[in-house]
Write the structure tokens for this entry.
Amino acid sequence: MLQVKNVEKYYGNKSNVTKALDRVSFNVDSGEFIAIMGASGSGKTTLLNCISTIDTVSAGDILLEGENIAKLPSEKLAQFRRERLGFVFQDFNLLDTLTIEENIGLALSLNHENPREVKGKVEAVARKLGISDILEKFPYQVSGGQKQRAACARAMVAGQSLLLADEPTGALDSAASKNLLEIMTGMNRKMGATILMVTHDAYSASYGGRVLFLKDGRIFNELLRGDRTRSVFYHEILDVLALLGGDVSDVI
């Protein structure tokens, strides 16, 4: 589904250049749940921003289902993000003045889809995530867990190809983090969602099926979970983080 080929990203000018990404290459198959880890400054958020087209690459290619998104003209980017990418944010980014139903279907409405079709798609994804009973409520009227589910529903409602999450549990307590990760795991396994998640947290990363570790803008290591338990995988992730060097507390 996703191919990242020799991607490089530079910031600054000729007298002071920072290389944030250094020939990064990897593939993502449809239905995978991948975590990207690394210390602060390793390039993980820059990589996600390039994949999401929020930032541009300095060199290399990023292909989503065969289309080189690194070469998309600027006038097509907004529509591409709405139709092909889903986003899960730390603070959900739900609009208080819209109902849960309106929040979930916002991208579809912005694409001028038929209101009846929008309603059908919203109701279908709401059923799968168990929030059909709150569609007429506003965000301030529902629990944090319901907001999480609504945010995930919005990320998947249009049948987006790829779900991107940047530190989705960063602002949550342990119970809420576990809830969100279980929701995302369910979306991956039951709905076939392909997920790419940047995280500094080994516990969060252990929910994925594969973990990529970045160091100094390069892929340092890779772990596959296989049929191992999440607990065993978690401790293997910690072992790799220790090999990354520096203060391990920066990344766990």
